[in-house]
Amino acid sequence: MNQERTPQPRLPDYAATLKRAAALVGGYPELAARLKVSQPELDYWICEIGMPPRTVFFHAIDIIIQNAGASRSEAVLD
Description:
Elements: H1 14-25, H2 28-35, H3 39-46, H4 54-66
Helix pairs in contact: 1-2, 1-4, 2-3
């Protein structure tokens, strides 16, 4: 019997997104300040212990988009 499997939707990689945003703004403390979250919260999400709220995740994506193609020294500041 041939059963077709529906592919599972791929979940966003929250940790990778947060790490990329941190690299663009100068580090984890700077990203926590930009996202208006505590450093321990950010650390949990980067270690994949839970997920950030959508608003925080979307803000990190905005940081990446704003800095697309820019080097760290050219990163856009809020």
